[in-house]
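Hi! If you just cloned this repository, the fastest way to understand the data is to look at a raw example. We've pasted two of them here, unedited. The first protein comes first, obviously.
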Amino acid sequence: MTDLTQDEARIIAWLGERKDEMIDLLRELVDTDSGSYDKAGVDRAGQVLARFHEANGLSVEIIPDARYGDAVKARLANPAANDQRPVLLLGHRDTVFPEGEPTRRPFRIEGARAYGPGVADMKAGLVIEAFVAAAFAANDGLAAPLTMLTTSDEEIASPSSRPVIEEAARESRCVFNAEPSRLPAGTDFTADRRQSITSGRKGGVFLRADFAGKAAHSGANYEKGISAIVELGQKIARLQGLTDLDAGITVNVGLVGGGQTVNTIAPSAWCEIDLRYRTASQRDDTVEAIRAIVETPDIPGASGTLTIKGEFVPLEQTADSLYRRSLLDAKELSIFLWSQFVVLGARSQVLPDERQPMRVEQATRLGNEALPNASPKRNESACP
């Protein structure tokens, strides 16, 4: 391993002594209900982080939202820095789980792994970021101001947080996101010191199609009805048929519903559609192809409308200098690092185009050794 600077060695040592505190914070976060639509629960999880930040010397701003959870922005100032743009640590605390899931499945540790709702996506990442910020607050050594922004609605495409993220990103020099990448099954970090970072992700669009027909009694006036369910049914295979696996485009009709009663020709029906695509250039043509299928009637008198419920842009792979610097930093720490392209959506993908980051996502495990190369200090000189 290349010799560390005194600041780096001091910060890594400080982190290495706090495994129990990290687990305690992770336990508290995982055992706090925080489904995306549970504003009270997501806000309770935000308060857990806000208390931790304040106890460790960071200033905290709560950015309120009336419908979804509030955003929590913690700052560590550095008046001596020549460049006052902060390094941004970005993450989300909402989960996909229903209310009560932590009670049914509370935090636990088995061997070297932790389990519980949201433990990987992404409450362990929040613990990494929070302790990195606390380490710099306690030990100095950071060459830039530091901001940690935690949002509340990533799992539902950030309907309230997107402008908050974009504003924070525009004022930052670079962005780090500690939502975990995926390691091959059976990987043991302690043994082989393998880590991965995500340098590319698909974009996604969440859509809803609503269909209108005409109600009629299915026995007495069958010929007078127009079935919205039949209209929907004739479109599902064509929508799925837009999938092009070689091009990286998938279209999935994942939810359907409709009808009034079993003996009524259905006056209404709906479906929800998930679109994933690899490059920004694929988005508009595919959305318009979906729209044409939905809004062109198959049954005379029926109609359909398409609504975009949410979306995130792709993180397209580039030869990014920050990624190259991360490879060097990993080598200094004797960590084998590789890049991957993945499918799922993430926080970084709502950043404004001009601030697209090299997205560092660590495979989070409980060992102290997983933490040092999350340090913004080790990548600061490569920030744009």
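Ok, and the second one:
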Amino acid sequence: MSAKERDFAKIVWDTLSRADIQKFIFYKNGILPYLPWAVAWQILMHHFPLSNYEFGKIHYYSNRTCEVSVTVTCKNGTETLTRNMTQPVYDDHYNSIINPTSAQINIAKMRCLAKCIAMFGLGINLYASTESGNLKHEEALTGEYQKFIDELSLLRTEEEVIAWYKNIRNIPNISKESIKNAITARNAKLAQLNNGFDNAAAH
């Protein structure tokens, strides 16, 4: 690595590791913290808008489980910095899934993307705190959270968010945990709409 490359790597790390992400942090079961992939990508693009990512080929194992991978390149003009990450396809209990569906593979890919972005410094402390607390797993993004986040990312007004939440509440036999997840997702989206994304991402 050349001196110029080291300097750019330091700029990227210093910029992203210092980003204020507190209002965007979600918690699985009230314990495990994580930064949603959509927010991570927004913040990365806010600071380095030429950045891009590319998923690798899915690697299948003999036991019919599989692993996904991604390469993220952070760019600023002609300067680039690349990081790679892999991620097994697992369920909400962190067990590798045998013969996963396309939806399960897609969730794993986005989890992998969030982890790879963390390697540039964004939200890396969340993974560090997970390990220091002797928790079982470093990744906390669940399929249900991902579904809520994806749905809310398409909404642009408070009225739309409130209507979305009412629809969730009206789902027959919905669990208390799902309601809690929906409330957390709703509040995070409302905070983004009320406070403005740019003010939070620029710190």
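That's it. A detail worth noticing about the second one: The CA atoms of residues 1 and 9 lie 10 Å apart.
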